[in-house]
Design a protein that fits this description.
Layout lengths: L12 E12 L2 E12 L3 E5 L6 H8 L7 E6 L8 H4 L2 E5 L9 H11 L5 H10 L13 H15 L3 E5 L7 H17 L3 E5 L3 H4 L5 E6 L2 E7 H7 E7 H8 L4 E7 L2 E7 L4 H9 L3 E4 L2 H10 L7
Parallel strand pairs: 3-7, 3-8, 5-6, 6-7
Antiparallel strand pairs: 1-2, 1-4, 8-9, 10-12, 10-13, 11-12
Length: about 300
């Protein structure tokens, strides 16, 4: 992807998080999370329910303060920094929408968001078939989700985050959202973080993926690298066991004399030749399958 010229000069590293901890009473939502996100990329944030995804996004958006560690957006702590907050947009599944008409809420966002694009908002109103004069409280769940996505895209915030904000939308509306996000990203590059359980559907958006599990960041890698590292090995059980010895095995399945193991490893050309010579079959895993394996095995510390 070759984005055009950005509307803002941004530091190379837009987001820097070091040893972040977030707690709710006795419950620790995030512990020891450190990450660096470059400007003008689309990141996928995936994890099981309760893994800490929403807590991470809430801290980045200054919805709450970190209990420990440091958080920097454009080199500054976003908490209680009005200038940074105006340049960060988080759209949550709940929508956080006031009981007002669509056009009134758009007017409010236009005042609060310095990069707001009204032409884009108008186009998305048409594409999502949203009634500008209707009160949000009267919208269907799908329309509320579409309106939230409209607000996030039209804000054109340098850091824009969507936290499962499209779950109420049907498949055609989600495809419109993906199409419009990619289209606008090419014209106006910025940093997106998209948190989703619909991994295969949204995976084509992502340049890099962050996997959070039980409050810890267990993977941060490019999509291409992740796809290469998820490998299935199939064949006679004894040969598969011998071949997989010393590899990072995520899971296995046995059907009679045949066995398939899933490993987390970069297979070298030599390894592939050895597998072929041994009569074994190597395959790649879909991103969603790899995520499931990584977050359900007993030991969750992939190297």
């Amino acid at each position: 992807m070759n984005p055009g010229t950005s509307v803002h000069e941004q530091p190379e590293n837009l987001v820097e998080v070091d040893d972040l901890r977030v707690s709710y009473g006795d419950v620790t939502a995030l512990e020891g999370v450190s990450l660096t996100l470059e400007a003008n990329k689309i990141y996928g944030l995936i994890g099981r329910n309760g893994s800490g995804k929403t807590s991470l996004l809430s801290v980045l958006a200054a919805f709450r303060r970190a209990d420990a560690g440091t958080v920097r957006v454009e080199g500054r702590d976003p908490y209680e920094d009005a200038d940074i907050v105006s340049r960060v947009c988080l759209i949550r599944e709940s929508g956080d929408l006031p009981a007002a008409k669509i056009r009134q809420i758009i007017g409010l966002y236009r005042e609060l968001r310095p990069n707001w694009d009204q032409e884009l908002a108008d186009r998305l109103l048409r594409r999502f078939d949203l009634p500008a004069g209707r009160n949000v409280s009267k919208l269907s769940r799908g329309m509320k989700s579409a309106f939230g996505c409209l607000l996030g895209l039209a804000s054109r915030a340098p850091l824009t985050m969507f936290d499962e904000s499209y779950l109420g939308m049907d498949a055609p509306a989600r495809y419109i959202f993906i199409e419009e996000l990619l289209r606008d990203y090419v014209e106006y590059p910025r940093t997106f973080i998209v948190s989703t359980h619909l991994i295969e559907e949204f995976g084509r958006l992502f340049e890099e993926v962050l996997i959070v599990d039980k409050g810890r960041l267990i993977v941060h890698d490019t999509v291409d690298s992740l796809r290469e590292r998820g490998v299935s090995i199939s064949g006679p059980a004894e040969l598969v066991d011998r071949f997989a010895m010393g590899l990072d095995v995520l899971g296995e399945q046995v059907l009679g004399p045949t066995k398939q193991v899933t490993v987390y490893s970069h297979p070298t050309d030599d390894l592939r030749r050895q597998a072929k010579a041994a009569g074994l079959e190597l395959g790649t895993l879909p991103l969603q399958d790899l995520f499931v394996h990584l977050t359900t095995r007993p030991e969750r510390n992939p190297s």
